[in-house]
């Protein structure tokens, strides 16, 4: 495909030839495309098929890429009138239930259409069962009339055991069952599913005119129909890479380097003696956390990450995309030198660290763009250990924990600390393990001139929590 780089280094697509009413000519935050396409991703499927989880992941992924997205969950609209309905509420012959559910869907669609009126608001996810053809046709017609494209995403799964596990994992603790016995909640939820099964219609040839992606048995088969443009294909490609097997991702910065000790940024320095000590301790730290699970280690192409990973007894892969943020003309300088030689740049970086691009180098925004294939590969993979650099680690962490662009470049990630991330439904769990090897702190607070500070080591100083907004 014809994807070009803008002078700012952002990716853009040439304008499509046919211009529909859903396109406006503005460029979004990352310049992902020249024209804006507004898309409503319409979730489809029986209850407990992972729709909400998929919806939230898509929104988090797009947010991370600076593509403005929002999820409209019809269940939470329904809950305002009917907070804890019994299964019979979802019986399609229950006229009052039907009326209230249609009203909730209408309220969500109205809010969504209103949300699209704001500039830059590009993708909404309408999270509901949308389980009948008539409901889907109604949504499509409404979106068509507003100039919004629709992408229907169905999750179809008949694995009884998996559905039961889903119910126990997320449904018994849903707001619909607060304060209720989990066994009774699970039983009622199964009844609810039966109500839906009576009228459920899967996407089929009757809807051949619609754009859709049908994910069968958690991605073992994916059927796509009429995917029309770049953003739609990007969302579909992301969905195709998701899996729900239990796994963890470990991330660590490289051990302390000679540049860290001298306070210089960038470069391709060797590990310091203390960094080498961390490298020796790392296999033990990993084994303690991962046990005998199979693991693959990813490093950057820079010496300090390879040296840190050298004692790890696992398959290794090195990625250019994991190299540290390129500090351009400032490479090899200390923060103090940068402040002296490039005072305006130093101040501009503090003002907007996420967007500031070093002269001849990169910004955090640039790093996120080059990390996208890494995130895609991480979604496809199981247990991975990534040994990388401060800025890159912040960006990867921000994706999994939903940290904002304002916060992520300022997060403190100490050296000689292994972070374990375990994605579960709706939330990524985090655990930190410090190796008892002192290291300098390379963290610089906004507005401070601090050189890399000497610290007594992680064990003597509890590492402050990274601001995290996990979902
Ligand atoms: P409801 O219609 O009641 O809102 P839902 O379809 O939105 O249900 P979720 O609340 O998202 O269901 O269910 C989350 C559970 O689904 C998690 O346990 C997750 O592991 C599992 N899951 C995620 N993706 C899929 C999938 N493609 N197929 C089946 N289960 C999935
Ligand atoms: O100091 C270590 C380091 O990895 C540098 O090489 C890099 O420029 C810097 O951290 C990134 O952190 P910040 O964005 O906070 O300057």
What does the model show?
The protein has 471 residues and is an alpha/beta fold. The chain is 37% helix and 18% strand. The strands form five sheets. The protein has a six-stranded mixed β-sheet with strand order 6-7-5-8-9-10, with helices on both faces. Helix 5 crosses helix 6. The longest helix has 22 residues, at 95-116. 38% of the residues are buried.
Major beta-sheet overview: 6 strands, mixed
* Terminal-residue CA separation: 34 Å
Report the average pLDDT across residues.
90
Low-confidence runs (pLDDT<50, min 5 residues)? Answer: 1-34, 455-471
Structural class: alpha/beta
Residue fraction in strands:
15-25%
Residues in helices, as a percent range: 25-40%
Number of helices: 14
Shape: elongated
**Which hetero compounds are present in the coordinates?**
adenosine-5'-triphosphate, 6-O-phosphono-beta-D-fructofuranose
Widest sheet: strand ordering:
6-7-5-8-9-10
* Rg estimate, integer Å: 24 Å
Write the layout of secondary structure elements.
Elements: E1 4-5, E2 11-12, E3 23-24, E4 36-37, E5 39-44, H1 51-64, E6 68-73, H2 74-81, H3 95-116, E7 121-127, H4 133-146, E8 149-156, H5 160-171, H6 182-197, E9 212-216, E10 221-225, H7 230-241, E11 249-253, H8 258-262, H9 273-290, E12 296-299, H10 303-309, E13 315-318, H11 335-341, H12 343-351, H13 364-380, E14 384-388, H14 390-401, E15 417-424, E16 427-434, E17 440-441, E18 453-454
Parallel strand pairs: 5-7, 5-8, 6-7, 8-9, 11-14, 12-13, 12-14
Antiparallel strand pairs: 1-2, 3-4, 9-10, 11-15, 15-16, 17-18
Helix pairs in contact: 2-3, 5-6, 11-12, 13-14
The structure holds adenosine-5'-triphosphate and 6-O-phosphono-beta-D-fructofuranose.
Keywords: ATP-binding, Nucleotide-binding
Region (Disordered): 1-29, 444-471
Protein name: Fructose-2,6-bisphosphatase
